[in-house]
Amino acid sequence: KSALFWKMCCDLKRRFLLLYATQKGQAKAIAEEICQQAGTHGLEADMHCISEMDKYNLETEKDPVVIVISTTGTGDPPDTARKFVKKIQDKALPPGHFAHLQYGLLGLGDSEYTFFCNGGKTVDRRLQELGAQHFYETGLADDCVGLELVVDPWIDGLWLALKEAFVLQNKKEGMNSSDISNALSAAPVHIENELNISSEVQKLKLEDGVRSSDLTQKLVDIHLVASTRDAEPSLVHSIPPLSQSALNIPALPPEYIEVQFQDTHGENPHLSSLISEGTAFEVPITKAVQLTREDAIKTALLLELDIADTIFDYQPGDAFCVICPNNVSEVEELLQILGLSDKGENFVCVKVKQGTKKKGATHPQHIPERSTLKFLLTWCLEIRAVPKKAFLRALVECTGDAGEKRRLQELCSRQGASDYTQFIRDSNVCLLDLLHAFPSCKPSFNLLIEHLPKLQARSYSVSSSNLYQPGRLCFVFNIVEFPACPTRPVARKGVCTGWLAELVAPLLHPNKNTLDTKGISTSTEKISIFSRPNNTFHLPADPSVPFVMVGPGTGISPFIGFLQHRQKLREEHSDWEFGETWLFFGCRHQDRDYLDELKCFLENGTLTHLKVCFSRDSTTAEVAPPKYVQDVIRLYAKEIARVLLKEGGYFYVCGDKKHMADGVSDAVVDILSMEMETDKLEAMKILATLREAKRYLQDVWS
Asked: Among 74, 119, 572, 625, which residue's CB has the most CB atoms within a 10 Å radius?
């Protein structure tokens, strides 16, 4: 049977096209897992990034196609898929353009956001419109609860679906379908053991003192990790039944990167070479203002950048990205744990390992071919990333202590999925935390390059108007704080916000060394930025159209730009008609967090209505005022309904998705239902129509 299988494999079209579209590396990692598993099923995945349109052609593709695609922004396909999406959305394409195409699609998203998995849904819908057929049902994985809950079973079911697709395909081409089916079904018999131990999973047995190998994975006695004194599980400790379970763990990912240490002579790449989209501009920070009092729960800063000497342009409502480094002390700590403190300034040459078993192994695009070790850890790798299970699996092989090894195996196993979610994913654990928790784990540097994603530039909403402040760009942010917890013994600040706060400390707290001759605080600090235009979150093109803005906390940021722009237009065009403007703003405390600038917009007429609330202020009033913006909105139901339904107005929401934007959406649905005297379902349909018409717009984050 096995001989028949391999003979048939030579005759059958065992190839399938595997495309991925990724923003932060998730979709690529999943595609690589599919590619790796394909071999043990007698299949060959021809894997490409969806942007590499010169390497594949869907117009002539006869084999099944598997697509793994993520979602970015507020529902956009990832940057790598933009050209592909633009191409397939060409309205000139006929309905049967892809009638020959058989495909399966796995979409990645986050249900915290309104347009869940919209990148995948957009591609899926358009391929269907163009006549393509599913050979396997579409999977939609939710990062909010754990991608693996959908990804793992979707991949498990993919192989049978591909088998059936090949049977149908070859039947059409005149081959004997029973021979094909028999040959393909013989594959698991021939490779049963290999499948179980070196590809999909490895069955672990609880036996003492046997070292793992490529073919078997036997573990030391569980009592090395499980102590009867410990009743609660933790990052480093499990309890029954997990601690006594046989485990299914991922196959060991093949290593594919080779790192050669060189001398200390040379120059590191320019930061502009680290971005794949747009042009980077190095601009000075000219001003920094702390918007909140020292005793506020969150610290909000406003930074002003000088863009006068650049061609950087923006509209109010746009976003832009800041290229930021990892924390210096964390980089130093990582070098020390890795035993590479003395090599930080050495240049390293990164190459693909000759003879690697990883299919389609290529040099990672975000890794320079030559730079210093410290540069790679500082500017290229997201060392704060939550480690994927494949990384944990690789770390098992670098861990000396038997108890620590077992726990890492549990955390990457299917049986340990809930522990992984609780102690790794939800706890926001990073590599540094793991290396502290498992001190006998000593990974080589090549594993970091293979498993850590690209350090992403951080996106911020513009909080100014180029019309109001030519040559200046402002933005507002909270300094993100990660308090210490059992899985993270030290408190940390956000990668970018912590770095920016450090950079502008001299501007916020000047001393005699940072003052110029006139006693004004000056800064020589520069940061690198690039544009990320927002195609929808803009002011109405017609200034006479009314609009409502909802922006508590730093969600106010784009609306300051809106109001500055509107103020300047009013000054320059006194003969124009301007629609009314509403702003719903909320913060914790009036005396610590409130922005007095908003009153100026109200006083000069730029802002028609300003409604505020303070969630943490105590009150002596008999009837307590509303604490949150969604509650305040309900008090103005008739006015909101009038703006949206009778006057064709716009509704903008900016800020926290889970705790605010969803509440605002619910409030608007209730308002529409009440004012139109219709049921909630009908009101939800009306809101959906407003979204489709780009009149209900969100710029939110989780």
From this structure: 119
Euclidean distance between CA atoms 310 and 426, whole angstroms: 41
Cα-based torsion angle of the residue sequence 548, 552, 558, 562 in order, rounded to the nearest 10 degrees: 40
pTM, entire model: 0.80
Give every CB contact of residue 160 below 8 A, 6+ residues apart in sequence: none
Q: Please measure the distance between the N-terminal and C-terminal CA atoms of the chain and give it in whole angstroms.
A: 53
- What's the alpha-carbon Rg for the chain, to the nearest Å? 28
Q: Where are the beta strands (DSSP E) in 270-357?
A: 281-290, 300-306, 319-323, 347-352
**pLDDT at position 212 over 50:** no
Distance separating alpha carbons of residues 203 and 105, to the nearest angstrom: 29
Give all domains of the chain, ordered by start, each with its CATH number: 14-169 (3.40.50.360), 278-324+457-509+524-535 (2.40.30.10), 326-455 (1.20.990.10), 547-700 (3.40.50.80)
Q: How many residues does the chain have?
A: 702
Q: Is 517 exposed, middle or buried (0-12, 13-18, 19+ CB in 10 A)?
A: exposed
3-state DSSP assignment of residue 688? helix
Dump pLDDT digits (tens) for 147-166.
Answer: 888 998 999 999 999 999 99
DSSP E strands, 315-418: 319-323, 347-352, 370-372
Q: How confident is the model at residue 523 (pLDDT cuts 50, 70, 90)?
A: low
- What pLDDT, on a 0 to 100 scale, did the predictor assign at position 311? 94
C-beta neighbour count of 352 within 10 angstroms: 14
